[in-house]
Amino acid sequence: MVIVIGTGAGGALLARELAKDGKKVTILEKGPYIDSKEAFNYYDAYSDDVDLLTTTCIGGATIVSMSNMVRALDGELLDYGVDLTDAYEYVEELVGVHQLDDSHIGKGTQLFLDAGHELGLETMKMPKAIREDDCIQCGMCAFGCPVNAKWSGKDFADEAVEYGAELICDAEVIEILSEDGKACGVRYVKDQKEEIIESDTVVLSAGAIGSTMILRNSGIDEVGEEIFFDPFVTVGGYLKDINFNTEVQMAGLIIGKNFVLSPHFSSFIGQNIGDGVNDGDILSIMVKTPDDAKGYVYSDGNVIKTNTIQDIRYLAEGVATAGAVLEKAGVDPKTIGSTVYRGAHPGGTAPIGKIVDYNLETEISNLYVCDASVLPISPGKPPILTILALSKRLADYIKSK
Ligand SMILES: Cc1cc2nc3c(=O)[nH]c(=O)nc-3n(C[C@H](O)[C@H](O)[C@H](O)COP(=O)(O)OP(=O)(O)OC[C@H]3O[C@@H](n4cnc5c(N)ncnc54)[C@H](O)[C@@H]3O)c2cc1C
Predict the structure, then answer these.
(1) Rounded to an integer, what distance in angstroms lies between the CA atom of residue 222 and that of residue 376?
(2) Which ligand 1 atom lies nearest to the CA of residue 57?
(3) Which residues contact 139 (CB under 8 A, 6 or more apart)?
(4) Fewest CB atoms within 10 A around its CB: which of 23, 232, 275, 326?
(5) In 10 A of CB 167, how many CB atoms?
(6) Is 263 in the pocket of ligand 1 (CB under 6 A)?
(7) How far apart are the C-alpha atoms of 17 and 2, rounded to whole Å?
(8) Cβ(211) – ligand 1 distance below 6 Å
(9) Residues 368 and 362: beta-carbon distance below 8 Å
(10) Cα 258 vs. chain centroid, distance in angstroms?
(11) Alpha helix segments (H runs only) across 250-331
(12) 338 shares a domain with 240
């Protein structure tokens, strides 16, 4: 029997693949089973030391994601003997990665794409896993989807159940049990009652912060001593009647040397553009960079993250380029403002080569970690596809054992 902990990018596909293969699978998910349109209620709260976005519910952070799907860290993972080529092909087809049809590219996004091309920047439509037939182009992707038009881990958790897996929600895993250095079960809390399930194989996919806490409780201490989070800001300015806030978000992409840009509306930006500016009169761009893994996960789940001088350099390069794109797109440069510095891709807390080996196994045999924790460095771009490919690879390995 295999226990999978978490139903986000790392856990859901793994559970699906193993259940489909006829394995007995139990999935333990800390959060509730919800409809995707309710997901915005399940963002986690952190201390004021960091502006970090994660969620605890079925699907994890994938349910509030923009469903941006790009390959990342190929070369870096190959250095650890991890070749994801075949796994990428499999998961790209499974989640339906494609660039959106022009019918779903809004006016603001088109201005972003045109400006990027005119400036000679590497510019393209973002590869996504959104079903155009269902998408109502409301701009609410980060709230969860009101019409369930995006792929999320919830889809795979549901499929795993159809293939025979047991899904237990509202179940907070506390510790992995082991005997003679081998995983033998899991201790969790549900309805304020402690429960134990026995199993000889456990896959921990509770996300960079959740997995850190569980590993520490299980005797693996050197986790969470580093953390990256792919920092981002959203910069934008005044462009009358653009109504970009109701377009499909992040449907364009500019790839810079040390950053990526994507058209993105944030409800926090208006206040930094001008008094009384309407959301419909703003065009804005997310600037996202890789960051050094300088941070720490505390035992209560709070996080401290510092910025290195290189982090600031990358961000400055991206913001300068975003300013040029905005101006080219017709934004009044005197109005350009920014949100605060935030992160939505926490990872690197149990990195491959240090806490897990190239099969993602820990020092406790048959205890695997498969989520953003294992990424060796910050990708600086959307990590879901890479995590899905790692899950597919691990599922194949577990099936072969
Ligand atoms: C607003 C937003 C937009 C994003 N957009 C994109 C995007 O478009 N493309 C992209 O690639 N990335 C995007 N990301 C990032 C991406 O969603 C995450 O990097 C990815 O989901 C991380 O996968 P994971 O498996 O590590 O964690 P998660 O997907 O967060 O899954 C962790 C799971 O474990 C559960 N859990 C936690 N603790 C426990 C416990 N103790 N016991 C049991 N279960 C537990 C959680 O509830 C959750 O279900 C976005 C993130 C945010 C917040």
Answers:
(1) 15
(2) 47
(3) 244, 245, 246, 247, 248, 249, 265
(4) 275
(5) 20
(6) no
(7) 12
(8) no
(9) yes
(10) 19
(11) 309-328
(12) yes
**In terms of domains, do 110 and 256 share one?**
yes
| CB contact at 8 A, 55 and 249 | no
Q: In terms of residue numbers, what domain contains 304?
A: 100-142+231-343
CB 216 within 8 A of CB 350: no
Check whether residue 212 and residue 105 sit in a common domain.
no
Ligand 1 geometric centre to CA of 114 (Å): 32
| pLDDT (tens place) for every residue of the chain, 401 residues total | 999 999 999 999 999 999 999 999 999 999 999 999 999 999 999 998 899 999 999 999 999 999 999 999 999 999 999 999 999 999 999 999 999 999 999 999 999 999 999 999 999 999 999 999 999 999 999 999 999 999 999 999 999 999 999 999 999 999 999 999 999 999 999 999 999 999 999 999 999 999 999 999 999 999 999 999 999 999 999 999 999 999 999 999 999 999 999 999 999 999 999 989 999 999 999 999 999 999 999 989 999 999 999 999 999 999 999 999 999 999 999 999 999 999 999 999 999 999 999 999 999 999 999 999 999 999 999 999 999 999 999 999 999 99
- Cβ of 56 below 6 Å from ligand 1: yes
| 72 contacts 9 by C-beta, under 8 angstroms | no
Atom of ligand 1 nearest to the CA of 67: 8
Structure tokens at 35: 């409809």
Q: Which residues contact 289 (CB under 8 A, 6 or more apart)?
A: 230, 231, 232, 258, 259, 260, 311, 314, 315, 318, 380
Task: Give the residue, out of 36, 71, 267, 384, with the most ligand 1 atoms within 8 A of its beta carbon, to mutate for a pocket test.
Answer: 384
